[in-house]
Amino acid sequence: MTRRMMTREVTKTTVKVAKIEVENGVPVAVELPSEVLIGNIRMERAQKVLDKKYGHSVTIIELLPETVTYEMAVEDFIAHATIKVDEPTEEESV
């Protein structure tokens, strides 16, 4: 019997980030660990998310978006997934 497979494309953006420190009166970029954000993230969004995470302004060096196609047997998906229950909207509950 052939196993049925399901596929899903997922885009993630690797953000290379640094903080600026002053050493001997000269600004120096100190590279921080790269961050991975889900989606094709624009510079403005990445800046906002990472400033909030670090609690201060950081410098974005590079954005590297990548789209990958994942594949999984339907049986495995069902075993690991949770069932989504739709919540009633305000119009439905009135």
Give the H and E element order.
EEEHEHH
The figure for the number of domains is: 1
Taking the alpha carbons of the first and last residues, their distance comes to 48 Å
| Average pLDDT, all residues | 91
Unreliable spans: none
- Label the overall shape: elongated
Strand content: over 45%
Map the helices and strands.
Blueprint: E1 5-23, E2 26-31, E3 35-38, H1 43-54, E4 59-73, H2 74-80, H3 90-93
Antiparallel strand pairs: 1-2, 1-3, 1-4
Task: Characterize the structure shown.
The structure is a single chain. The chain has one domain (5-84). The protein has 94 residues and is an alpha+beta fold. The termini are far apart. The chain is elongated, with a radius of gyration of 21 Å. The chain is 24% helix and 47% strand. Strands 1, 2, 3 and 4 form a four-stranded antiparallel sheet that branches. The protein has helices spanning 43-54, 74-80, 90-93, and strands at 5-23, 26-31, 35-38, 59-73.
